[in-house]
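Because showing beats explaining, we think one record worth quoting, sequence and backbone structure tokens together, and here it is:
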Amino acid sequence: MVAGFDTSIDNPEEIEPEDELNRMNGSGSLPVTLKFPGGKLKKEPDKWDAMTNAVIGNLSHIRSVCSHCDKFLISIESRALNSDAGV
């Protein structure tokens, strides 16, 4: 999510996301009110669409800087292809 919102971060998997998420939330761009550490998230449904579009629109960037995300998506894509092929 951090990589999708802020494409200037070169190594998003190496940073502590809480600071970045709180910074983003301060701008009102996140669909939740964050309460770290260990707190609950207060959902703000009216912001979900904007967040989703930002993240999906940057998916190729996210995959290029987040190896864990890329591996996860490769796994899903592989399963989907195998499922479509009747395997």
